[in-house]
Amino acid sequence: MIIGIPKEIKNNENRVALTPAGTLALTRSGHTVLVETMAGAGSGFSDKEYQEAGAALTSGKEVFAKAQLIVKVKEYLEREYVYLREDQMVFTYLHIANNEPFAKALIQSKTTAIAYETVTQQNTLPLLTPMSEVAGRMAVQIGAWMLQKANGGGGILLGGVPGVMPADVVIIGGGMVGLNAAKIASGLGANVQVFDINAQRMAYIDDISKGTIHTIFNNEYNLRQALKSADLVIGAVLIPGGKAPKIVTKDMVQSMKPGSAIVDVAIDQGGCIETSDHVTTHDDPIFERYGVLHYSVANMPGAVPRTSTIALSNATLPYIQKLADKGLEALKQDPGFLAGLNTYRGFYTCKAVADALNGEY
Ligand code: NAD
Hints:
Blueprint: E1 2-5, H1 20-28, E2 32-36, H2 47-52, E3 56-58, H3 60-66, E4 69-71, E5 89-92, H4 100-109, E6 112-115, H5 129-146, E7 168-172, H6 176-187, E8 191-196, H7 199-208, E9 214-217, H8 220-229, E10 232-235, H9 250-254, E11 261-264, E12 286-289, E13 292-295, H10 305-326, H11 329-332, H12 335-338, E14 341-344, E15 347-348, H13 351-357
Parallel strand pairs: 1-2, 1-4, 2-3, 4-5, 5-6, 7-8, 7-10, 8-9, 10-11, 11-13
Antiparallel strand pairs: 6-14, 12-13, 14-15
Helix pairs in contact: 5-6
Bound molecules: nicotinamide-adenine-dinucleotide.
The site of nicotinamide-adenine-dinucleotide has 32 residues, from helix 5, helix 6 and strand 8.
């Protein structure tokens, strides 16, 4: 099969859909990989590395024109819609439920579009996981930076030093983001509390951390107590398919110490902190409300494109390989992979997406 890897054109998007390592695996099994010139540059992969892995370097136009399967990171932007066509498969983060123009372009062009975010595996979302791991780990290093005096914070070192108490880190939501944040914060020596409502999940965190990460049942009373002494709060709640609930209210933020910091990772679903009232960008990520610093960037992994690209490619490669080897048969053989199919022959094929767009299913 001919697989095309275009360069991402979204603002500040430096990830690429396939690494040279992934390219080598596909070319070794007899597939043709077309990579747009400079596609990997933002992630530190040179054209030469792709060529050495067996890829043919070409223009973006050629990639879209010749490939049978286009693999991307982000959705198509309007100027890429002209490339969509019926005899081509597209595999990327689609997020069409709240992107009607792109959804319509996929339906009108009758493209076979498979979304990373709806592929499932034993009740997990394996192609979302790597980005949650990245964002969770990043949240702590960003929080540590915000707590430094010169950056507007209270001048606190997360791990403390002998004779001085470490910082209190409160993580709300102990899922993929929350657990990764907890591991890093705990590793730095901070006092970490994870608030969740899922008893099984809390038992798991307690087990694997051997009690070094404290889990607390999330309710208003418990959370209010913890926030008063928190130095860093990380918002990591997810209601699958829904908007994030505002778990930390304005008056709870007002009760926090001046110079403390909040990283609202759930901002891509609207945020779980009432005062993180807007999405920020990597160019201008931090703002202040009631003396508390807030960080609310919706595409955190974009700041570490090399790590993110490799993590994403590790997760997507087995699926790309199956699509390349077997075409649509690969979806028929794996219900979890089939759950990724969002549009086919001019119809929506994912119920949640069809419902969100009032489209024909
Ligand atoms: P997840 O499903 O693995 O974890 C969510 C956790 O929230 C679960 O453990 C769940 O039990 C818990 N939860 C649900 N309701 C709760 C409540 N009322 N109180 C406390 N906990 C509650 O999800 P995840 O992969 O960890 O993602 C978390 C959020 O981070 C999502 O909104 C996701 O989209 C977002 N995210 C953002 C970025 C970014 O760049 N900003 C990157 C990756 C993920």
